[in-house]
Automatic annotation (TrEMBL):
Protein name: NADPH-dependent F420 reductase
Natural source organism: Marine Group I thaumarchaeote
Lineage: superkingdom: Archaea
GO process annotations (BP): copper ion import; NADPH regeneration
Domain Pyrroline-5-carboxylate reductase catalytic N-terminal, chain residue ranges per copy: 2-103
GO terms, molecular function: coenzyme F420 binding; cupric reductase (NADH) activity; ferric-chelate reductase (NADPH) activity; NADP binding; oxidoreductase activity, acting on NAD(P)H
């Protein structure tokens, strides 16, 4: 399976690439193809160092080329850039491509981390991305509550749940499979995409809990 990561040069992209290159061909996307290739070389070296042999590969290209090739496309970009990036890349994807949004609409204010849709009366991430999807059922929301620090650290033992929202069972199953491939993560389905705000708001919740209570490596686990 070819997994494309739009904005894959950021922290989350690095974590996803390190983890999934064990089994898949990962393509790092960037606005700048050279930056993408440089990151791909760096991540390949790190993956080999951390895990030894890789069954897959990590390569890099510009965001639009990555979108055209991918079977699964991760939108690893800031909330503020959803419209400008998605209007360029999502019209280019294959009909069968599953699109994943880990995007958290969050801002830091005097009181702590806050949820932009509530604070500023704006759409949540899933709603913004959905506007640009040809086949709307292929959009799945996931990975809001796992930090890049945990994904990029192969020696850190994970034991966390990942909330998943989406309308199409087949697409949700593809994402569940990718979550299960990361040791210590468990997918928890919350419901259709319109409930994605519940997952997206979990990130500021977790970060406020972490900072106010001095908790290292917080995560969510349903017991
Ligand atoms: N960091 C975490 O621990 C974490 C946890 C859960 C969810 N998330 C969510 O996952 C997503 C990615 O997180 P991240 O920390 O990796 O983000 P990031 O480092 O801030 O940005 C990721 C990439 O987005 C691209 N980008 C930045 N500004 C852009 C712009 N103006 N227009 C188009 N592309 C732009 C950049 O790639 P190029 O410059 O190479 O194009 C950048 O490397 C975010 O939506 C975040 O809310 C993050």
């Amino acid at each position: 399976m070819k997994i494309g990561i739009i904005g894959g040069t950021g922290g989350m992209g690095k974590g996803f690439a390190l983890r999934w290159s064990q089994n898949h061909d990962v393509i790092i996307g960037s606005r700048d193809a050279t930056r993408a290739s440089d990151s791909a070389v760096e991540y390949t070296n790190l993956a080999k160092e951390a895990f030894g042999e890789m069954k897959g590969t990590i390569s890099g290209s510009d965001n639009v080329s990555v979108a055209k090739e991918s079977d699964v496309l991760i939108l690893s970009i800031p909330y503020e850039n959803i419209d400008s990036v998605c209007s360029g890349v999502l019209p280019e994807i294959k009909d069968s491509c599953v699109v994943v949004s880990p995007i958290v609409p969050m801002t830091k204010t005097d009181v702590g981390f806050e949820f932009i849709p509530i604070k500023e009366n704006k759409p949540f991430s899933y709603q913004l991305v959905l506007k640009h999807m040809k086949n709307k059922s292929k959009l799945v929301s996931a990975f809001h509550v796992i930090s890049e620090k945990k994904l990029v650290n192969p020696t850190l033992e994970l034991n966390y749940d990942i909330f998943v929202c989406g309308d199409d069972d087949e697409s949700v199953q593809v994402v569940n499979g990718l979550i299960n491939e990361i040791k210590g993560l468990r997918p928890i389905y919350l419901g259709p995409g319109e409930l994605s705000y519940l997952s997206e708001i979990s990130t500021p919740l977790l970060l406020n809990a972490m900072i106010r209570n001095k908790i290292n490596n917080p995560g969510i686990k349903i017991v």
